[in-house]
Amino acid sequence: MCESLPQFPITVSIVGAGSRGSSYASFALKNPDLLKVVAVAEPKDIRRNFMATKYNISPENVFSDWKELAERPRLSNAVVIATFDHLHVEPTIELSRLGYHIMLEKPMAVSIKDCQRIVEAVNRSKVIFAVCHVLRYTPYNRMLKKLIQSDAVGNIINIQHLEPVGHSQFAHSFVRGNYQRENRSSNVLMNKCIHDLDLLAHLVGRRCVKISSFGNISHFKPDRKPKQAGEAKLCVDCPYESKCAYSAVKIYLDPVKEGQTGWPISTITDIVDIENVTRALEDGPYGRCVHECDNDVCDNQVVNMIFENGSTCTLTVVAGTQAICQGKTRVFGTKGELDGDGKVIKFTDFRTGKRVEIDPVGQQETDEPDYDLMRAFVNAIAQGSAEGYIFTGPEEAFNCHVYGFAAEHARTHNTVVTLDEFRQLHSC
């Protein structure tokens, strides 16, 4: 780290200007006194140029590859790495070596060995490092943890956590989109739910000792294709399209006709208008029938965990939901229970029978979940220490990734994994 502490606004370079990198960067627009985007590295011209223009980045700080950024003297206090999952390792190692504080999009990497390499690199460089497990930082989940720590529910017996991906979001990201195949990205548990596993471990506050998992592709496969769809491969050619819940016309084209231009439409074409969206559905992957794609990641999965104190947890991730990524958590204890819908927590006290609703935010204007993490990250840099700000540093993040890899091993090998044996096997 630098001997002198940096002053606000903290400067940041963005590596990967897709939807995630753009989301983190947008914190600077709403909080210019805290953060300034000064460089971008992105291979796609339109994304790179859009971010450069939006944040008034000097031309000499606009790069098509993170390696070009690494060849320059350090340009900023920190870097956000939001590349594809399998491209996290090398930029993290090299940029931390150069002294950049690192905020790394989840998952850390797609193998235990590469996660270990990242942990070793950032510890060696002594930079501030945060993995984007945003759930720990939200007022809602911090209140859940506070209630548990206050002994409101007594000893934890069981936690149930549901991650509802959303039927259209799952079709977009994990059937037609960038995360449809494990060998191009990672499995759905690591990509989508690694921060849910992190949250469960955080709430229990003890070490997981055994883990099992079951999951499969239940719906998004050829034998579930409606007979009325016939031989159609694309939604625009399909006689069943108007009745299909996963119609690409409904998800992308109809909203554009109503003037919508944001996510997910903005990810399928560089220019969002009727003509270009139509062309994308006719020629690109996002127009395909969801039963005619080459996806291989689970559309439903359960993870079962038991911790050293005897507490048990279940995580369920499922595609077929109306809710989109608004997790639901139920905590069952010896003195009471908590039932949270992602916004409001209902507390029942077994001793008195009293029931209370707790709104951690109330009428206050809320930030995006990403912003809670970003605020913690920039404050840590300004103070020169992760302590008290970063809850998902290298060791904490690595531990929950081990749980994720162990769960996938359990699922694919139809077994129950003992974590001590798993760690010994992988020297971690």
Keywords:
alpha/beta, single chain, 9-stranded mixed beta sheet, 14 helices, Dihydrodipicolinate Reductase, domain 2, 19% strand, 3 domains, 35% helix, 428 residues, Rossmann fold
Describe this structure in words.
Pfam families: GFO_IDH_MocA, GFO_IDH_MocA_C. It comes from Basidiobolus meristosporus CBS 931.73. This is Oxidoreductase domain protein. By secondary structure, the chain is an alpha/beta fold. It has 3 domains: 10-134, NAD(P)-binding Rossmann-like Domain (Rossmann fold, 3-Layer(aba) Sandwich); 135-220 and 295-368 and 390-426, Dihydrodipicolinate Reductase, domain 2; 222-283, no CATH class. Helix content is 35%, strand content 19%. It has helices at residues 19-25, 27-30, 45-54, 66-70, 89-97, 112-125, 139-149, 167-175, 188-204, 248-257, 274-283, 369-383, 394-413, 419-425; strands spanning 10-15, 35-41, 62-63, 78-81, 101-104, 129-131, 156-164, 208-216, 300-307, 312-318, 328-333, 336-340, 345-349, 355-358, 417-418. The strands form 2 sheets. The chain has a 9-stranded mixed β-sheet with strand order 14-13-12-11-7-10-9-8-15. Strands 3-2-1-4-5-6 form a 6-stranded parallel β-sheet, sandwiched between helices. Strand 5 (101-104), helix 6 and strand 6 (129-131) form a beta-alpha-beta unit. Helix 7 (139-149) packs parallel to helix 9 (188-204) and helix 10 (248-257) packs antiparallel against helix 11. The longest helix is centred in the last third of the chain and has 20 residues, at 394-413. The radius of gyration is 22 Å and the shape is globular.
